[in-house]
Amino acid sequence: RRRQRGERRNAPRLLDLDLLLYGRCRLSQSRLIVPHPRMHERAFVLRPLLDIAPAATIPGRGAARRWLRSVRGQRIDRTRTAFWR
C-alpha cells in the first residue's frame, strides 16, 4: 500500500501475503495452512503457477496440471503491462 499523506517515510505498514505453496511443506496452524487448502480450485493460482513451474506438485493433491480441467470455466484476465518493472 502506498504511504498516506502525513505518514513517516519507511514507517511500518501492513502486508497481506498469501503463502500458497512452499516446496513439499505441509503445515496446518490456526492462522496458516500450507499448501493453501483451495489453491487447486482456483485458475488464477494454477495457471500462473504452471507457467513458471510446469511440473509443480501440490502436496496432498498431486500434480497441479491435473486440476486445470476443473477450473476451465474460471476467467482470468492477463495484464500486458509489467507493473513491477
Description:
The protein is extended. It has a domain of 36 residues. 6% of the residues are buried. The two termini are 17 Å apart. The chain is largely without helices or strands and 85 residues long. The strands form two sheets. It has a two-stranded antiparallel sheet with strand order 1-2. Strands 3-4 form a two-stranded antiparallel ribbon. The protein has one helix and four strands, in the order ββαββ. Helices cover 12% and strands 9% of the residues.
Shape: extended
How far is it from the N-terminal to the C-terminal residue, by CA? Answer: 17 Å
Mean pLDDT: 87
Proportion in helices: 10-25%
Strand order within the widest sheet? 1-2
Order of helices and strands: EEHEE
Alpha-beta classification:
little secondary structure
Q: Largest sheet at a glance?
A: 2 strands, antiparallel
Tell me the number of helical segments per DSSP (H or I, 4 or more residues long).
Answer: 1
Q: Please provide the count of β strands.
A: 4
Cα-based radius of gyration, to the nearest Å: 17 Å
Main features:
single chain, 85 residues, little secondary structure, two-stranded antiparallel ribbon, 1 helix, 4 strands
SSE inventory with pairings:
Elements: E1 27-28, E2 33-34, H1 43-52, E3 57-58, E4 62-63
Antiparallel strand pairs: 1-2, 3-4
Gist?
The radius of gyration is 17 Å and the shape is extended. It has one helix spanning 43-52; strands at 27-28, 33-34, 57-58, 62-63.
